[in-house]
Each structure stands twice: as structure tokens, then as C-alpha cells.
Amino acid sequence: MSEQALAALPLSHATRDFIGGAHAMIVAGQDIAAQDGATMPVHDPASGRVIAEVPAGGKTEVDRAVSAARAALEGPWSRLRPVERERLILRLADAVEADGAVLAETETANNGQPLGMAQGLEVGASAEHLRYMAGWATKIYGQTLDVSIGMPPGAKYRVMTRKEPVGVVGAIVPWNFPLLMAVWKIAPALAAGCTVVLKPADETPLTALRLGQLARSVGIPEGVLNIVTGRGAEAGAALAAHPGIDKIAFTGSTQTGKLIGHAAIDNMTRLTLELGGKSPMVMFDDMDLDLLPFAAGVGVFFNQGQVCTCGSRVLVQRGIYDRVVEAFAGTVAGMTMGSGFDPSAQVNPVVSARQQAKINGMIAAGQATGATIHTNSAALPEGGFYVRPTVVTGAGPDNTLVRDEIFGPVTTIQPFDTVEEGIAMANDSVYGLSASVWTRDISRAFNVTDALKAGTVWVNAHNLVDPNMPFGGYKQSGMGREHGSMVIENYLETKSVCMMV
After folding, report:
1. Which residues pair with 53 in a beta bridge?
2. Phi, psi of 158, deg, nearest 5
């Protein structure tokens, strides 16, 4: 089955050899299989066919990986100077770029995303992120502090703080941007001097395994980066609850994040969570209507809406409501669907049959409660996990399509009248990951931005990130921040040192 499926894909020989080859987890620098020999299938979302098998690791493999990471942390990795860590991360960035064709083709074959996006975002942005974070390895510092300790009388003290690696990091990443999300965890952890056990998503493990091979090839010491593939309920749960893990870094759904948080707290494991979203795009009467195609394409339908910051609630001031509905409905009606290897396809498959069924079920439930569906009438491509791009109007505030994260090519459009009503509707969610404001009025832009309860607010834009721009959420969208100096702090402990002098 996998040979036939691979033969149908327009892959280079190098990519075909990698995907079709034998896959192994990487622990202590060595290739390992699951102890019981178990494997799990990897699918091509565009055809639904199995293209590879990877080991289905569990508690035993997680134990081995954590032990290897601990040995590396207390051994050769801790003895490297910061500049040496920096150089190794920079070499990994170079290796990612050099291997870009294999990584991008593998991502499109395994995730379904457009090849151009895989090249520019998964590969290009990953290399940029590694280089940005590499620089932090040489810029970690403590402070000297004046203190007022009065005992014994006349004593003087010199007080300073040290920043030290938090330790062994368990990183669990999602399937929507598999390589980039892995790099978002690995790069700051290594820069801070930590070691890592990475558990990629069940559906998309291939680029994580390739990244582990590249890390080994550039000389990152054995045990510093370990890759364990397996199902979330087994390998992921074992990693989250492992007493040898000092910090968990997770990106994924809020529901899973809560389970991981409960597991981690039993060991007082440090924790950062980047979770779900239900991001509002708040459009005012005075917005530049020429931006509507950009707002729809980048804000809503980018990566088939499989983005935690997807603008899945479009809130529109009544004066332009009809024009926005017309523009968005026209956009979805004209979208072409197809494989990520088809450069003319504007909508690609979602990642799995389970995700496809979930999204279609939510659309049906929303329609059953009175919503109006505007969608694409073209025939779906044969096979694969395709979902029609969809715009929903007439949905009430309690409709599942308004309240719940969809993670697919679907958005609702709702009208509002006053600025205050638009803000209230935007904030009426358990989530608070991101939002956007669309207006020509700079004063209004600042005032509304201040009032929105979200970790990132864009103005006349949406879904844009940068390694230097903190990223994370309010409310049930998580805790902690990715990117910039703030993410480095997530991987460090602060030690106070007090000396009588």
C-alpha cells in the first residue's frame, strides 16, 4: 500500500527514499524501535492512503529517552560553552535549509499543506527561528542586587542571581505545522542549555524524525534531542506524567492541554501551554474593503483553517455587513480544491479522516440550529480528507460554530452596531489567543486593541508571527509565551546567591 501511495506522489528520489524507508525513534543518538515491535500508520491526507509506518512507542521508550536526556544534561551538554551551543543550533539551521526539499515534500505528503507553504514556512521559517534562538545562548544573564539584610549587625552581603537550565524538557507538538512547531520548542530549550524529549503528533511524525537525524548529523551530542513517536494516549501521557521531566512544553487543543496540566502538576513539573483559539476579526465600517480577499485568505482559510489563530469569528459593523458576506461567500464559491502538490489548489485536505468528520459534523450541527451555509459546490477530489470551505451566517451566540474551535476551513460572520458591542462580542469566548481589528481610524485601532482580551492583536492583518514577537494566549488559550526573550525564561530557573562579604 505505501509503495503504491508513494508512487502516485510527485516526490524527489531522496524524499521517496526517506518516506518509504524504515523509520526509527532516536534515543541517546541511536535508532530504536518500540520494544514490542508495534508500529502505527502514516497517511497522505490527499489520498487517504498509508505512506509509511513509524514505531508506536510508549512508556518504556519514554523512560529510555528521559534517562538519555538526563545523562546528556548532566554530562557533555552541560560542559559546552554558550557559544558552542549557539554554533550547533546554527549548524542545525543550515542543515534544515540544505535538506529543505526533502523536508518540504515530506510535510506536504504527510500533512497535506501546499508545497510552497511547506518550503517557505515549515522550512524557511524554521531555519530563521533556529538562527534567532541560537543567538540567545550567549545572552543569558543574571543580576546583582542591593539588599537590606540587617543580621548580624554591621554585616554586608553581595547578592546575585544566576540563570540555569530548567532541565529535561518534554515537548509535545501538534499536527498543523509539524516541523515549525517542533522547532518552536527545541530551539529555545537548547539555547537555554536544556535537553529535550520530543513527541510529535500521532498523525505527522515524519519531519520530526528527519529533524532528529539532521541534529545528529551536525554533531548535537547524543541524548540532547530525543524523538519518541507514539500515540498521545500512551507516549504523550507517559511523557507528561514522567517524574524525570522538569518542564513540559505543549501546543495543541485546550482539552488535551488540561489533561497534560493535571498530569504535570502531580510532579510540580514546570509547564507552558499554547492552546486553542476562537479568534475574532473585528471589522469596522471604515475598513479598507480592498483588504477583504487578504482577510479571508490569510485570516480564515490559510492552511485550511488548521491554525490556532484562525479568524473563525468575523464580526462586522452593520454598515458593511452585506458587502463582507458577499465577498467571503464569493471567495469560498470560487476556491479550487486539490492536493498540496497542485499549485493551482487553494484548499487542500485536512490532516485526517477524524478531523474531516469532526468539522463536517460541526457544520451539520450548526446548520441544524438555524445557521445559513455558504460553501463551494464543486465536486470534491476523489479520496482524501477534503472539507469544503464554508462561510456561516445567521448563527446565534450559542451555536457550536460560534462557540467552539473548529480547526477547519470554516468561519462565521455576525453583525454588530456600536464599537462597544463589537468589543463585547469579541471578548465573549472562553478563548483569548488572538484577534484582529480592521479600521482606518488609528485612535479606534488603539482603543479597541487595548480592550480585547487576547495575547496577540493584529491591526489590518491576521495570522502573522515573528521570532521576536511574544505569542500565547489569555484565558483558556494557554499559559506562558513562545518567542522572544520571554520564551527563553520558560526554559530557565532563577537561583539567588547571597554571600556575606
Report:
1. 41
2. -110, 120
Of 451, 425, 419, the residue nearest 319 (C-alpha): 419
Specify whether the CB–CB gap between 176 and 207 falls below 8 A: no
Whether 86 is covered by a domain: the verdict is yes
User: CA–CA separation, 260 vs 172, rounded Å?
Assistant: 10
Question: What pLDDT, in 10s, does the model give residues 413-467?
Answer: 999 999 999 999 999 999 999 999 999 999 999 999 999 999 999 999 999 999 9
Residue 473 within any structural domain of the chain: no
> Of 454, 450, 410, 449, which is closest to residue 430 (Cα–Cα)?
454
Q: What is the CATH number of the domain that holds 350?
A: 3.40.309.10
**Contact by Cβ (8 Å): 374, 332:** yes
Whether residues 284 and 159 fall in one domain: no
The domain in which residue 191 lies consists of 2-275+478-497
Q: Say how far apart CA 323 and CA 325 lie, in whole Å.
A: 5
When divided into structural domains, the chain yields a total of 2
- Specify the pTM: 0.95
Task: List the catalytic residues.
Answer: 274, 308
C-alpha span between 269 and 449 (Å, rounded): 34
Do 96 and 46 lie in one domain? The reply is: yes
